[in-house]
Amino acid sequence: MPVSMSSAALWLARWGALVVFGAGLAGCSGTAHRVANAVTPYRIDVVQGNFISSEQVAALQPGMGRQQVREILGTPLMSSLFHADRWEYVFTLKRPGVEVQSRRLTVFFKEGVLERTEGDEMPSEADFVASLSTKVSKPKVPQLEATEAQLERFPARPATAPALDAQPPEPEAPAAHYPPLESPRR
After folding, report:
1. For the whole prediction, is pTM greater than 0.90?
2. Name one GO molecular function term (predicted).
């Protein structure tokens, strides 16, 4: 598909502007550093796996079937063909500015029924929800009114300023003669 000259020229002009802008920022290292620090990327919370609460672990009883365990804990994150009698539940939460939370629970079966569980200490649902809300901070509300000391830094308005209710001056009369729009032909 042929490219028209106008689109190629437009593309070249955009690239040229980008190069000039980049060179300008590189030349002003202090400005570039301030711009780079002012612009911060949005970082998302990364949640992987199944959250298992202490209440769910307490509901597990030896002798339960696989389906009963799956109804309480959900689908395991890892189950291996080589270890069919073991299910792995792993939970990881990565949030910007907060330490990574990682928990693991392994459920062991023997002849299709729950034998035992091993893993980390699981928090209650209330504790987990409380740990999520610690990230949210109240923004600082700026002071919206100037104090008398701040107002004194600015000079008072001159006394010659027109009052708000004063009438505006009369406009000047339009010119009676206008120059020609085109130059005369020779």
Report:
1. no
2. protein-macromolecule adaptor activity
